[in-house]
């Protein structure tokens, strides 16, 4: 019983800490634009919409299946997905703690690593339900299995069975985002290397390679198989959205990319410095082998991060767990490192919370106006929050409901359609309400925004404005419709 209590205590500490960090955002529908859209897609899937056909995005189907399942819970889905994300974050932090002990950290260093993982999520855009908040749990589980390899090899353990579990976890994560494929490949190769070191016969190693590859590919093959069963057109839509379209996107301006990367490096640098000290003082024997595996995972995660190249802050979320684990030995040895790393992270969190707007009330107020003035027609959110469709309970005017797809020049030619022509098609249906903003960016699709501005000047009037981040969200109502403050009574 005392041993069980000692294992449970860190999990309880991490649970309490996670709620202290994340409770401020519970119920906020506009934490991040991405997770709003995941929830919208999951909601529409429950009403028969098929991703990539009826509602379009590039993320793998597993992510949308997860949000569809969360949408089955009571409420509008917002608090449900945020609580689920908190549970996933805590579980991942606990696995970080366990893995840190395996790489030689003292208990306090391991606990600090778990806490720093939770802080890192909040600092890098993972306050809510970004996809890595969920799939990091799977990758941390796969990594923990991989870190067992030296002990398994020494004791004649079931290396292939261990690898199958690790690669299957990575394969499920791949169906939430494709970049974990790099880490999954490392886990598989690490198991094959230990099969070789254990002097298994070549047929066993080759057979193991096939099995591990199949385990990692199985969830993706299942998704491809389902779309193939729906017909050639469905498979083409799946393939284009998941694999072809990403290569067609234009790059962001170099100065924006550089500033994003600099911000990420600055926030992760304390962990990176501590991990570097761990590397310099790495152990020997089995302990050193475990540490080398941990650094191998970190290197694979960095490669996956670099592969995307756009460097939005949330793209760095997969780096936080391996960095925290490999920093943990130094955090346990040095009071200065522990205080500096935790202190800096908490200071940045407090400053960010102090200056950040929640916008929860303004987002719900805007959705109320849209619901009151839409009737049984579809509004059009050209620039704004896609959660508006969910909160207002309206239909979608286009499968390309994520605003960036039709409004950003970086998407021009990358969606498989003429984006400006789709905007003109939507405007031709004369939506009763159009949501836009006064935000200024250099990457608007010029043809799309010209069409919307012309329609607004000709046929619409502004009826509502509310602050949103550093700009204002605007609601325009068609000129022939009266402005309503609440939905008309139904007969």
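Q: What amino acid sequence fits the structure above?
A:
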């Amino acid at each position: 019983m005392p041993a069980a209590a000692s294992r449970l205590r860190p999990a309880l500490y991490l649970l309490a800490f996670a709620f202290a960090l994340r409770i401020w955002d519970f119920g906020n529908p506009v934490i991040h634009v991405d997770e709003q859209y995941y929830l919208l897609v999951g909601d529409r899937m429950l009403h028969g919409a098929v991703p990539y056909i009826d509602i379009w995005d590039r993320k793998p189907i597993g992510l949308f299946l997860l949000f569809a399942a969360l949408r089955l819970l009571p409420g509008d889905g917002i608090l449900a997905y945020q609580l689920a994300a908190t549970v996933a974050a805590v579980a991942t932090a606990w696995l970080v703690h366990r893995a840190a002990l395996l790489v030689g950290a003292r208990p306090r260093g391991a606990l600090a690593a778990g806490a720093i993982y939770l802080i890192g999520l909040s600092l890098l855009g993972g306050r809510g339900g970004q996809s890595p908040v969920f799939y990091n749990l799977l990758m941390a589980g796969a990594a923990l299995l991989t870190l067992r390899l030296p002990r398994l090899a020494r004791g004649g353990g079931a290396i292939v069975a261990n690898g199958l579990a690790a690669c299957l976890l990575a394969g499920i994560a791949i169906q939430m985002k494709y970049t974990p494929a790099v880490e999954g490949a490392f886990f598989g190769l690490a198991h094959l290397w230990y099969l070789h070191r254990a002097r298994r016969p070549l047929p066993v190693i080759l057979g193991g390679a096939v099995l591990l590859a199949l385990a990692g590919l199985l969830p993706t093959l299942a998704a491809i198989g389902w779309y193939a069963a729906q017909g050639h057109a469905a498979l083409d839509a799946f393939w284009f959205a998941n694999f072809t379209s990403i290569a067609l996107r234009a790059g962001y301006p170099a100065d924006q990319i550089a500033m994003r990367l600099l911000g990420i490096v600055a926030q992760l640098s304390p962990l990176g410095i501590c991990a570097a000290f761990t590397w310099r003082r790495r152990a020997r024997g089995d302990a050193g082998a475990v540490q080398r595996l941990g650094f191998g995972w970190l290197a694979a995660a960095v490669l996956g991060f670099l592969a995307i190249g756009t460097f939005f802050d949330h793209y760095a979320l997969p780096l936080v767990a391996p960095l925290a684990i490999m920093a943990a030995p130094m955090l346990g040895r040095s009071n200065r490192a522990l205080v500096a790393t935790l202190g800096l992270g908490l200071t940045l969190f407090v400053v960010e919370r102090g200056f950040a707007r929640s916008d929860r009330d303004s987002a719900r107020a805007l959705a109320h106006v849209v619901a009151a003035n839409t009737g049984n027609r579809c509004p059009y959110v050209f620039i704004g929050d896609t959660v508006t469709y969910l909160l207002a309970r309206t239909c979608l005017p286009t499968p390309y409901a994520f605003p960036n797809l039709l409004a950003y020049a970086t998407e021009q030619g990358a969606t498989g359609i003429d984006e400006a022509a789709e905007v003109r098609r939507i405007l031709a249906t004369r939506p009763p309400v159009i949501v836009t903003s006064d935000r200024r960016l250099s990457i608007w699709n010029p043809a799309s925004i010209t069409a919307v501005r012309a329609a607004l000047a000709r046929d619409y009037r502004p009826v509502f404005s509310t602050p949103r981040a550093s700009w204002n969200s605007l609601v325009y109502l068609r000129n022939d419709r009266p402005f309503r403050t609440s939905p008309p009574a139904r007969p």
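Q: And what stands out in the fold?
A: The longest strand covers residues 460-468.
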